[in-house]
Amino acid sequence: MEEFKGKRLFLYNLSTAGWVLLDSIWLTFAIAFLLPPKEKVAEGMIPFISNERFLGIITVLGAVMLFGRIIDAVADPLVASWTDRSTSRFGRRRFFLIIGGLPLAISTVLIFFPPTPYTSFINGIYLAIVFGFYFFFFTVYVVPYLALIPELGHNEKARIGITTAQGYFSLIGSAVVMIGGPLLLTLFMQNTDYVGSYRKMVICLAILGALLLYAAVFAVDEKRFSNARPSKVPLIDSFKKTVRNKAFIIYLFANISLWFLFNIVRSSAIPIVITLMGADEAFASNMFTILFVIAAICFPLVGFLTRIRGKKVIMIISLGLFSIFSIFLSLTGLTPVNPKIWGLIFVGLMGFPAAVLMIIPNVILSELCDVDYKKTGERREAMYFGVQGFFMKLNLGLSTASLALLYSIFGKDISNPLGVRLAPILGSIIALLGLIIMTRYPEKQIKELLSK
Fold first, then answer.
1. Which pairs count as long-range contacts for 269-272, CB under 8 Å and 24+ apart, including other chains?
2. What is the DSSP string of 186-197?
3. How far is C-alpha 389 from the geometric centre of its chain's CA atoms?
4. In this structure, how many other beta carbons lie within 10 angstroms of the beta carbon of residue 328?
5. What is the model's pLDDT at position 302?
6. What angle do CA 79, 84, 90 make, to 5 degrees?
């Protein structure tokens, strides 16, 4: 095998910015676009879906998200099995990158084009279908993409290098949306209404994301840089073997709890800016700039601390710090400190746990893939990432549905922002549960198995 480095490594990691960018578009703007505060409706925004609850706990957005995530969760092990067993001449991973990129970008844009300009049942059905397509093609692209980490990184040092680089490109992809998005929105609003401005912004960002996705297609030549061979294990057997791995399950639930909190904070960022900080959407770019700059600064620190203390300890610290900072963020506007300054301080402090989130989990999972290979002789990297995706998508769907429910019950408007305030607290409780679970991770035994 040749060493995967240089321009090829750069181009492969560059595609991380592409899929993170597309994912960040809807996570950052979809709720604010589809369910705007009543004050924004008075300024020209349109509530495309109802905020009412059905059966006491179900909202339209919550039902749409759960439906889409169920489709996505089912797709994860299916796509994982397809790519693990693929014999395509393009490569068992690269083939899926080719067919998944463009549909992923198109479905991202369609989220922001409900067919009727008012609250309607048709919009709910439309969004359920579009989100289903989005999540499916997200899986088609991302599961094989991540499965390349243990194949292209031939040792722990190489994998930490890959995931650290991907962390930087994740920040870039997120920053383009979270910093550039509000700026584009402000620019377009000078000549277009609110809805049209959102749509123009989304189209511009999605085009860039689509171009970035295909950088990895040109970079990865699996025959030259990987000795992995197609797996022969059937889908059901492969899935069962994966979920029976105790160390994997412990890691998995700790990781998804951290992502639950991160998704809650990210999706509620603009409502927090509007309702708790008393600012407009453009101020969100300042908040995200601080978050990403500090996270980027922390990347080398995360790598250094990981080598000294181990991945388990750093994950536990990250879960604890993220929970504490999120609780303080929820107090924005309740202290004598200026709410904008208070919010910026605690969002900035989240930079370290955000850096851990972008680097450490995929290194841990790559190690677990290696241990499985040494035990079974089968290369099933995609199934591990697919099963992680299966639970991750259900988890993210649940977090978005929980957010919509909190907004519906407790309020999301400037005059009644309790739901916005409670959201980070809910995420913190889940993350603390993940911290407790992570204390059971058998890192010492994993290292001993790898050393043998």
1. 269/28, 269/178, 270/28, 270/29, 270/31, 270/32, 270/182, 271/31, 271/32, 271/37, 271/407, 271/412, 271/417, 271/420, 272/329, 272/332, 272/343, 272/420
2. HHHTTTS-HHHH
3. 10
4. 16
5. 85
6. 90
Alpha carbon 390 to its chain centroid, in Å, reads: 13
Rounded distance between C-alpha atoms, residue 78 and residue 61, angstroms: 26
Mean pLDDT by 10 residues, the chain (452 residues): 74 90 86 77 75 71 77 79 75 84 93 83 86 88 84 69 80 84 84 84 93 88 62 70 84 89 84 85 78 86 84 91 92 89 90 86 81 74 76 78 83 84 91 92 82 70
**What span, in angstroms and rounded, lies between the C-alpha atoms of 58 and 62?**
6
Which pLDDT does position 306 carry in this prediction?
A: 83
- For residue 413 the two structure tokens come to 């408007």
Q: Diameter of the chain by CA atoms?
A: 66
Closest CA to 242 of 163, 324, 313, 143: 143
Name, in order, each residue with C-beta under 8 angstroms of 337's C-beta and a sequence gap of 6 or more. none
Pair 439, 307: CB distance under 8 Å: no
CB contact at 8 A, 84 and 144:
no
Asked if 140 and 79 count as a contact pair (C-beta separation under 8 A), the reply is: yes
What is the phi-psi region of residue 53: left when phi exceeds 0, alpha when psi lies from -120 to 50, beta otherwise?
beta
Helix axes 6-34, 180-188, angle to 10 degrees: 50
8 Å CB contact between 342 and 335: yes
Distances (CA, A) of 96 to 4, 101, 214, 340: 20, 8, 11, 44
First to last CA, the chain: 22
Q: Which whole-number Å values give the CA distances from 337 to 276, 277, 322, 331, 341, in the listed order?
A: 12, 11, 21, 10, 7
Rounded CA-CA distance 299/9 in Å is 18
Cβ(164)–Cβ(359) below 8 Å: yes
Task: Check: CB of residue 26 under 8 Å from CB of residue 206.
Answer: no
